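Q: I'm writing up a methods section and want to include an example of the input and output format. Could you take the sequence below and give the corresponding predicted structure tokens, formatted cleanly so I can copy it straight into the document?
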Amino acid sequence: MNHPAFDPEGAAGTIRGWLAEADRVLITAGAGLSAAAGYDYGDEDRFQELFPALHRLGLRSRYLVGVPLPPDLLWGYWAVHIDDIRFSPTPNPLYQRLRELVGDKDHWVMTSNVDGLFARNGFAPDRIFTPQGDYGRYQCTTPCTPAVWDSEPLVARLLAAYDPATGAVTDPDALPRCPNCGGEVEINVRIGPEFIDSPYLPAGRRLQDWLGTAPSGTRLLILEFGAGFNTPGVIRWPGEHLTRSLPHARLVRINPAHPETPADLADRALPVPADAQHLLGMAGSQRQCEPAVRRSMY
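A: Here is the clean output for your methods example:
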């Protein structure tokens, strides 16, 4: 969708101004933020580079949910994918730029992303709510127990038995089984009703307490990145509802494809049809300069 009237410099100035006026900041993020940071699940070239055997089978992206694969190929895919996106030790400049932009503001993060990029780039782990799960854990598929387990040793074991030429885990003994019942396991992300959400509920309650116990008149700024309509009930719609319910809240929606904001939020919402990489570069620069702020409500 084209937005010919969009002024990126003006939007960056408004964000700087709103951030300066805010008492608290809630960062909300969908897949678009990680895509802008270099982890685009739809990137066919990167898919071919990482998974040549699966590419030869006709698969073209990391969106493999629902594609039936034999266990040796499935766990070969998961091992390479998770090692690349979840356990890479390399700092990510985009996420670090966002952390620098927020600075010492009182803030929280809520994200549908399961890649751990916020915690790995300077955001406090105890102030990150990931309701869709975490690639850093796995669980029993049944599940036979509410327990979850650290996936990093599992990924290392799978990679040691992985053959890039075939895309398969060559040692059947390396394929994971439930430590409790011996049955099948899966990564602890929200795919079906068997998802175990107990590891994430404490952070969700702390976030609710942070929002619910804010002093009257608290000026909350919601910075939303890359949250579209795949799962709008996780990030997009809650942000709109929260902005409506708090008279001093503002919403910035950064999304190159779906930046639209509800008309009833009027000047308390800023639609930004831009890529997070470009926008954060502008918003993070010249923070000490006089911001070009739209009409203030405070």
